Here is the input.
Amino acid sequence: MKPNVITDWLPSQTGQQLETIRPYPVPPVRRSKRTSQGKKIWIDIDNSPHVPFFLPIVRELEKYGVELVLTARDMYQVCELIEFFHLPCHVIGGHYGKNKFLKVLGSFLRAAQLIPTASKLPALALSAGSRAQILACKVLGIPTVMMHDYEHSIKTGFIEPDWILMPDVIPERAMSKNPGRVLKYPGLKEDVYVLGFRPDPSFLDRLGITQNDLVVTLRPPATEAHYHNPESEKLFDAALRLLADKPMVRAVTLPRNAKQKKQLQEQWAGPVAAGRMIIPEEPLNGLDLIWFSDLVICGGGTMNREAAALGVPVYSTFRGKIGAVDKYLSENGRLVLIENVHEVGTKIRLTRWKRPERPNNGRSAVLQSIVQNVVSILEKRQPSSLCSHAAANISS
Here is the structure.
C-alpha cells in the first residue's frame, strides 16, 4: 500500500534492489577477527529524510548478522515512508511544533517514552540526529552514534553523542568538543541512497507534463525548524512571483505540511488553476521528480543535496546559518545560494537542463565507509585505531 501523502524521499528502487545494485565497484569489506554477529543496534528514525537514508544501511548491517531494533518519530511523512518500505519500526512520540520550549520539552518527553526500548540494552544506538535517543541512552549508559551533516542544528548544549559520523568537508570541532570522537565519510549522505536510483521514463507523463514544458521543482522553507530565518520565506515568495507568469513553466510544488499546502493553494490560486503550479495529491518519487526537472528551488535541506548529488541545477533560498556541506557545494558550482530578493531575478536561470543519458549515482564508498565505521564501534575497537582506520578509508 502506497502512502497517500506528498513526499520527496521515495527512491525508485525497493530495499532489495538497493542492496544489489552496484554501479561502481565496491571495495571488499574488511572484517576484524571479532564478529558483530548477534549484537544489537538500535536505530531511531527522527525525520522523513532518514527513512531512505537508513534503508541501505540497514541492509548492509544485516549482512554482518547484526540484530536491529528500529524506532521512529511520528513527524511529517515518517510513518507513511516506513510503511512504504516495510521497515518494522515501533513509532514512539511525535512532533511538538516550532516553539523552542515545546521542542525541548518534547525531546525529554520522548526520551522517557524511549526508555523501555533503551532498557533492552543494545550494544549501540544509531541515529541521524535524534536528541531523545541520546538522552535515553545517557541514562542507561548505552554508546551512541549520531550521523549528521548540518553542524548548526546538532548541538544539545550539555549533552553530546559518544561518536559523531559526518561528511569530511565539515571541520571536526564544528560538531563536537572532542575531535577524537569524530569520524568522517567522503561525499554526501544522499549518496547513500542515490546509489540505487534508476529514473522512470514515464514519470512526467503521469503528471501531465509535456516535453515542451520547463519543469521546476519547488520546496518551501522549513518554517517550524528552530534554525528557520523568516528571510527564507521572502526569497521563496520572490521565486514564486518569478515563475507565476511564465506560461512554459510547470512548477511542481511540494509543501512540507498541510498548513503550507493550504497557504500555497490560497495565495497562488491563479497559477494552480492554470496548471502552471502543480501541488500533487498523490505520492511522488522524489528522485524522479528532481531528475526530470530542469531546475530545483528549495528552502534548504535534503532536497538541495539530492539535486546536487544528481547534478541537477539547484538554487537554495535557505537563509539560516549556512553549513559546511552547502558551502562546499556552492564553492564547487553544485549549489547556488540565493542571498537576497534581487538575486532571485539575477541568479536563477530558467533554462532547460541538458540531462545526461543516465544519472551519476554517487559513490559507493560513502555507504561502505559509514557501515564500516559503525561496525568498528560495535566491535569495540580502540578509538585511536578506529580513527586511523576511518582516515585510511577516506584517503584511499
User: Anything to note?
Assistant: Residues 1-34, 382-396 have pLDDT under 50 and may be disordered.
